Amino acid sequence: MGRERRDDETLPGSLQSLRGEYEGVRELSRTRRMDMPQAQVRMNVRKVGEKAAIIDIEGELTAFAEGVLMDAYNQASEGGAGVFILNFEGLEYMNSSGIGLLVTLLIRINREKQKLLTYGLSDHYRNIFQITRLDDAISIYNTEEDAVQAASVL
Amino acid sequence: MTEQPPQPGGKREEERRPRDADFWAKRVERLEVSDVPTGAINLNVQGRHEVGALQGFGPLWQKTYWVPLTGVGVTPTEVVRVWKEHFPEFHPPQNRFYPSLAGVQPGEVLLINASMRGMPVYTGVRVIYADEESFTVMTAEGLPEAGWNTFSAYTDDDGHTVAQVQSLARANDPIYEIGFRIVGSTEQERIWTHVLKSLAAHFGVNEPVRLEKACVDPKVQWSQAKNVWYNASIRSVFYTMAVPLRRIGVLIRRRNS
């Protein structure tokens, strides 16, 4: 990290510089992943109240789902959401790369001072959250109603 | 974090078994080493927790190393099968892995006896996920990194099989973070480059290994500085220094018996 004086937009670690760096990395990753098979996932964004959005995940959460997940996040974020609720009821398959995606999403959400909640995890996927210790950082609810109610008080 | 307990008798209990059910390890409270391979030192693993990328100290890095296996007609499944079977052989001599008898399977612990610039590091990882085209290990408390390494192979649009190592991890504690900033990061990159070169050479391929790295989270997690208590490098040094004392103890016990 350099020591030269720069304005806030380009100081290492500033939100703007990180956003630019992240976008640059995304572009690199997207370019490389154009060589890789397409994602087998669909995501739908629903606005809930004034500040929450639900992202319904249907299909497979693997590395190939990165673009779809980030697009859904961007769509929800641009709609004014500050709390994001991932609905896993339609999740059919997840490998370890899918966990990595959730971690990077969580980091990005935390960086923006937003919140991430989840519901709809089966016992199997709840177990995976525990194995990977994602449950240390992401709240898990049983139903959409519970998650939405929790979001309303954040 | 808030976690509501699952509702009994609800919809989830009626769901069919997920396709990935057999690929994931079972949850364990603490790591257990059931059998220690010959020559391996089992230290800093038994009884430890697993730690992921959210439990480490330093900035979070995602590093992706890959090598295209051009000119050979080998499938991703075959690459990963060979990788699992010969996993220790592809590592440099200063970074020795000791799989259990069951090998690279979900739930199995791999002991690591490594040397970082002459400093011993005895630790381990657990296989948390393994399918036909990838496997992922999660780190034990005290290992230099906290996170996951995924080893995989896939077919790109040109029809080439590509072998890949992807790391998503933080330095586990402040001492490791300093070490990574000085020399550790370069050493680590050399190790994974060596692994992929060795794997490629197994298939008769001599292609350069490419690396793409990104700082996913530059924030240091000061709340995790306490991880230094489990620093495997420090504990390994003390263990090594105590070898003469242990030998004296053995001699005394033999003499007394």
Write the layout of secondary structure elements.
The complex is a heterodimer of chains A (154) and B (257).
Chain A: H1 15-33, E1 41-48, E2 52-61, H2 66-78, E3 83-94, H3 96-111, E4 115-119, H4 123-131, E5 139-141, H5 144-152
Parallel strand pairs in A: 2-3, 3-4, 4-5
Antiparallel strand pairs in A: 1-2
Chain B: E1 50-51, E2 60-69, H1 76-85, E3 95-98, E4 109-116, E5 119-131, E6 134-140, E7 145-155, E8 161-171, H2 174-202, E9 210-217, H3 232-241, H4 243-256
Antiparallel strand pairs in B: 1-6, 2-8, 2-9, 3-4, 4-5, 5-6, 6-7, 7-8
General description of the model:
The complex is a heterodimer of chains A (154) and B (257). With 154 residues, chain A is of the alpha/beta class. Chain A has a five-stranded mixed sheet with strand order 1-2-3-4-5, sandwiched between helices. Chain A is globular, with a radius of gyration of 16 Å. Chain A is built from five helices and five strands. Chain A has two domains: 1-35; 38-152, 2-Layer Sandwich (Transcription Regulator spoIIAA), CATH 3.30.750.24. Chain B is an alpha+beta fold and 257 residues long. Chain B has one domain: Alpha-D-Glucose-1,6-Bisphosphate, Chain A, domain 4 (2-Layer Sandwich). Chain B is globular. Classes of the chains: A alpha/beta (154), B alpha+beta (257). Chains A and B meet through helix 1, strand 3, helix 3, helix 4 and strand 5 of A and strand 1, strand 5, strand 6, strand 7 and strand 8 of B.
